[in-house]
């Protein structure tokens, strides 16, 4: 990491990610215990499904987004050896996402949003849940924009040179996420928020499932690319070896050099 | 818009990429693993293609809409029409309604080793249906008819379970199906019904 400011930015994201993770882990333990039927006092569908919904949101969205954002800031500053572009904007994205999480947590924990993290319309949750989830996604878009700007900046300052593989993968992940999160954004903005605020009376659940599927599966890839990055870049370095795949960005990047981007 | 310069630019790009690809030094061991990975991918794609074109394994792609709010007024899914029926062509058609928190009718009996056409609809929210040990599994989306044609190979008693979260009573949503040996099964007396088959 270049300096304390970058370290603080990346670590703040990772702290939120892992706090969400540990909370969700305990919820998972409770859920197993509830379903086991060993302790009859725990038996409550209300608490159980509130917990399942919160667990899903924390694991699939909060941990995922915050971890990948923190990881991306780390990769960008270390591999490009340049500071994070527009730090106030980066912090703005962080706080926007965090406010979204808190906003979604209130209906989730009070049982007003027991619709699981995949939303399940025509079931309707409290509007604060959907608005909070939207802010979380918008916060992640801020990160995507910063990654892409840093990628282009580096290309301009280093004409003809290949972007380091780790940053190349991170920028592609940002592009992938921008495109794939559009599905859930459309579903929430045009179906779920109007429905939960009472502006609409009906919803087409077939359309909702289609829009959500556009986002749901790529969440896996949003995770896979950082994992690949770690395996291709960090692991060979830690092992002290040299993997010839690391030469590959040469031709990836020649593609970029000829593309309209330049 | 000029096409020629764009064509030239891309031809140049492709040639450039090919040249760079050839120039990459790839270790012997890595080359071996790359080949194995490509073969594995080829195998999987091949299996999918063979299943799709020769075994007819395809995702259900039929889209049929229905007004879930007025199923009770709908001729096909009126109460009397639910369950197992044999149409005038001898096809066995099973109409089922899913609703919080059961499948209606609560119990049906169908023959084994016989082609069955299931038509599932939801009267309220999103449900799913899963019959363990069979390949019956589909999402039942309100506003749509989920039609599945299948054959149950083994006679026995099977549960019919909801596998899509539908509310706080979701884990109690189930009913039963008896799969009876083909020779012991009798078609329900009240068939065929008009209105049903011409909706399909």
List keywords for this structure.
heterodimer; A: 262 residues; mainly alpha; Cytochrome C Oxidase, Chain A; 7 helices; B: 200 residues; alpha+beta; Immunoglobulin-like; 2 domains; 5-stranded mixed beta sheet; 3-stranded mixed beta sheet; 2 helices; 10 strands; 24% helix; elongated
Per-chain topology:
The complex is a heterodimer of chains A (262) and B (200).
Chain A: H1 4-36, H2 45-80, H3 87-109, H4 127-157, H5 165-196, H6 205-238, H7 249-258
Chain B: H1 4-23, H2 28-54, E1 83-86, E2 92-99, E3 102-104, E4 107-111, E5 116-122, E6 127-130, E7 137-140, E8 146-150, E9 156-161, E10 174-180
Would you give an account of this structure?
The complex is a heterodimer of chains A (262) and B (200). Chain A has 262 residues and is mainly α. Chain A has one domain (4-258): Cytochrome C Oxidase, Chain A (Up-down Bundle), CATH 1.20.210.10. Chain A has helices at residues 4-36, 45-80, 87-109, 127-157, 165-196, 205-238, 249-258. The model of chain A is unreliable at 243-262 (pLDDT under 50). In chain B, strand 6 and strand 7 (137-140) form a beta hairpin. Chain B has 200 residues and is α+β, with helices and mostly antiparallel strands. Chain B has 2 helices and 10 strands, in the order H-H-E-E-E-E-E-E-E-E-E-E. Chain B has helices at residues 4-23, 28-54; strands at residues 83-86, 92-99, 102-104, 107-111, 116-122, 127-130, 137-140, 146-150, 156-161, 174-180. Chain B has 2 domains: 4-54, no CATH class; 68-199, Cupredoxins -  blue copper proteins (Immunoglobulin-like), CATH 2.60.40.420. The radius of gyration of chain B is 25 Å and the shape is elongated. Chain A binds chain B through residues 45-46, 49, 114-116, 120-123, 204-206, 209, 243-245, 247-248, 250-251, 254-255, 258, and chain B through 9, 12-13, 16-17, 20-21, 24-27, 30, 124-126, 139, 141-144, 164-171.
């Amino acid at each position: 990491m270049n300096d304390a400011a970058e370290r603080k930015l990346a670590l703040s994201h990772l702290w939120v990610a892992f706090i969400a993770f540990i909370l969700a882990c305990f919820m998972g333990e409770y859920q197993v215990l509830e379903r086991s039927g060993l302790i009859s006092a725990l038996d409550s569908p209300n608490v159980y499904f509130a917990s399942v919904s919160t667990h899903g949101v924390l694991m699939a969205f909060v941990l995922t987004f915050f971890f990948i954002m923190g990881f991306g800031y780390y990769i960008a500053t270390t591999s490009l050896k340049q500071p994070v572009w527009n730090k106030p904007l980066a912090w703005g994205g962080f706080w926007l996402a965090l406010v979204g999480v808190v906003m979604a947590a209130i209906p989730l924990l009070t049982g007003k949003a027991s619709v699981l993290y995949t939303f399940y319309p025509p079931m309707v949750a409290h509007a604060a849940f959907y608005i909070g989830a939207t802010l979380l996604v918008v916060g992640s878009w801020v990160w995507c924009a910063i990654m892409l700007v840093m990628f282009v900046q580096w290309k301009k300052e280093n004409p003809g040179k290949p972007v380091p593989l780790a940053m190349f993968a991170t920028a592609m992940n940002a592009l992938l996420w921008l495109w794939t999160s559009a599905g859930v954004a459309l579903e929430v903005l045009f179906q779920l928020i109007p429905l939960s605020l009472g502006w609409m009376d009906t919803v087409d659940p077939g359309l909702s499932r289609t829009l959500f599927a556009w986002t749901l599966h790529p969440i896996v890839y949003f995770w896979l690319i950082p994992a690949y990055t770690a395996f291709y870049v960090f692991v060979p370095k830690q092992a002290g070896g040299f993997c010839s795949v690391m030469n590959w960005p040469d031709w990836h990047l020649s593609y970029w050099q000829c593309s309209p981007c330049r | 818009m000029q096409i020629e310069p764009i064509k030239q630019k891309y031809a140049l790009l492709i040639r450039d990429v090919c040249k760079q690809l050839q120039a990459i030094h790839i270790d012997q061991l890595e080359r071996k693993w790359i080949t194995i990975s490509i073969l594995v991918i080829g195998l999987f794609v091949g299996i999918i293609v063979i299943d799709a074109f020769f075994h007819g394994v395809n995702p259900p792609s039929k889209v049929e809409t229905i007004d879930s709010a007025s199923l009770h007024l709908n001729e096909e899914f009126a109460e009397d029409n639910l369950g197992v029926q044999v149409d005038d062509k001898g096809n066995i058609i099973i109409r089922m309604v899913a609703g919080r928190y059961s499948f209606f009718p609560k119990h049906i009996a169908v023959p084994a080793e016989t082609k069955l056409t299931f038509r599932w609809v939801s009267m309220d929210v999103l449900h799913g249906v899963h019959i363990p040990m069979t390949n019956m599994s589909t999402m039942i989306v309100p506003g749509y008819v989920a039609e599945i044609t299948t054959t149950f190979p083994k006679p026995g008693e099977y549960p019919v379970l909801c596998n899509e979260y539908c509310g706080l009573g979701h884990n109690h949503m189930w009913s039963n199906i008896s799969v009876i040996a083909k020779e012991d099964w009798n078609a329900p007396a009240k068939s065929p019904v008009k209105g049903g088959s011409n909706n399909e």
